[in-house]
Amino acid sequence: MVLNKYAVAIIQILTVAVTALVAAQSDGLLEPVEVWQVAGIAVGGVAAYFVPLLENGWAATLKFVATLVGAGIAAVVPIIDTANGGPGWSASAILIVLLAVLNAALTALGVTVRLESAKAALAAQDVSDQVPVAVDGKAVKVVLAHGRVG
């Protein structure tokens, strides 16, 4: 359950690292457009890590929106570059945007894994309810608020 608590952060770090590697692999270096795209994804990732789970509605909403903002930045950078006379859209720029969108979906999945883990820990007969609360109190609070234990 401890690893599940940090699933979203792990997904963010891996996405930024893979994105930078893919961008550099295409032509051997990171172009300024690609650097700004990776920075946008990183900003979305940092925001997704720090925003809380929501107790009402869809718990992953703020984290998902933060990563979508990162994907939006990644998509806007090549448009701005094209408007300023730069090369704009390249194969790696398009791939970065696709990875950013995948990152948003994986962020939502990471939150789901975290909540399902808390739900399973609360439902376990051989585990005190205090253990899941101590490990990931926020996820337990969200699960209990939604009444989805059992």
Q: Could you walk me through the main structural features you see in this protein, from its secondary elements to its overall organization?
A:
The longest helix has 33 residues. By secondary structure, the protein is mainly alpha-helical. Helix 2 packs antiparallel against helix 3 and helix 3 packs antiparallel against helix 4. 78% of the residues lie in helices and 0% in strands. The protein is built from six helices and no strands. It has one domain. The mean pLDDT is 80. The chain is elongated.
Determine the oligomeric state from the structure.
Answer: single chain
- Sheet-strand content, in percent, reads under 5%
Poorly predicted runs: none
* Helix vs. strand class: mainly alpha
- Mean pLDDT, all residues: 80
* Number of helices, where a helix is a run of at least 4 consecutive DSSP H or I residues: 6
Helical percentage: over 70%
What is the approximate shape? elongated
Question: SSE order in H/E notation?
Answer: HHHHHH
Supply the number of structural domains.
1
| Sheet with the most strands, sense and barrel status | none
What is the terminal-to-terminal distance?
17 Å
How many strand units? 0
Mind telling me the C-alpha Rg?
18 Å
What's the quick description here?
The protein is mainly α.
Q: Which short descriptors sum up this protein?
A:
150 residues; 78% helix; mainly alpha; 6 helices
Any chance you could write out the topology, listing elements then pairs?
Layout: H1 2-5, H2 7-27, H3 32-50, H4 61-83, H5 91-123, H6 130-146
